[in-house]
Design a protein that fits this description.
mainly alpha
Length: about 220
């Protein structure tokens, strides 16, 4: 039964929708956490410390954080595998390319695939930069996330990579939220305009929220 559900197009689209919403929830929480940098180094570093102690004393140090990481990893893998398999299935269903491209497809729709690849590569770089420190400029300081963020966004390449990835994320969210609503049965003709408005608002808010941090470092608001 499980294999039948997973093997169906509907099953794969459902996995994509649910995993996408899990990642969207994380993005919203992560954005609000990032915005704490505007309240100063002490508060931002305290937030970084809380991430490793949340769940205490029931959970050991960093256990809750690792549970979140495992859930996110499962969501990313499920989302990527489903997207790849659906893409291959779509190609097999129409081996001959369309003579005329569909003009109605939005820019976000047409770039979902490469946008996903960009985001996957960015996640790897972001972890190496601000989590493990292996790709961090100027020397990674464990327990000092404020200074680590300032270091990264004090470089041209750190800003370029981050802002490009955030724009790709915004386009991905804009189309993905609406698609997930359709897949999970929340969308219909009456709600279509409202769902698209929510998708646009989410994409805009997330993009602005994440981009505000490197812009603040570049302009000296955060230093």
């Amino acid at each position: 039964m499980t294999r039948t559900i997973w093997g169906s197009t509907v099953g794969k689209k459902t996995v994509m929708a649910v995993s996408g919403l899990i990642m969207l929830g994380y993005l919203v929480a992560h954005m609000f956490g990032n915005l704490k940098i505007f309240f100063g180094a002490e508060e931002f570093n305290a937030y970084g410390h809380w991430l490793r102690t949340m769940g205490a004393p029931v959970l050991h140090h960093s256990w809750a954080l690792w549970l979140v990481r495992v859930l996110l990893l499962a969501a990313v893998v499920g989302h990527a595998v489903s997207a790849y398999q659906l893409s291959r299935r779509d190609i097999r269903a129409r081996p001959t390319a369309y003579v005329h491209k569909r003009a109605r497809a939005s820019y976000a729709t047409r770039t979902m695939r490469w946008g996903g690849v960009v985001l996957a590569l960015f996640i790897v770089w972001h972890i190496l930069d601000l989590t493990t420190g292996h790709a961090h400029p100027g020397g990674f300081q464990e327990g000092h996330p404020y200074q680590n963020v300032v270091d990264t966004f004090s470089t041209w390449y750190g800003n370029t990579v981050y802002i490009a990835a955030v724009v790709a994320m915004g386009l991905h969210v804009r189309h993905g939220f609406w698609s997930a609503a359709q897949t999970l049965g929340a969308g219909n003709a009456a709600r279509d305009r409202a769902l698209k408005a929510v998708a646009n608002l989410l994409a805009l808010a997330l993009t602005a929220g994440f981009v505000s941090v490197p812009v603040a470092v570049m302009t000296g608001v955060v230093s």
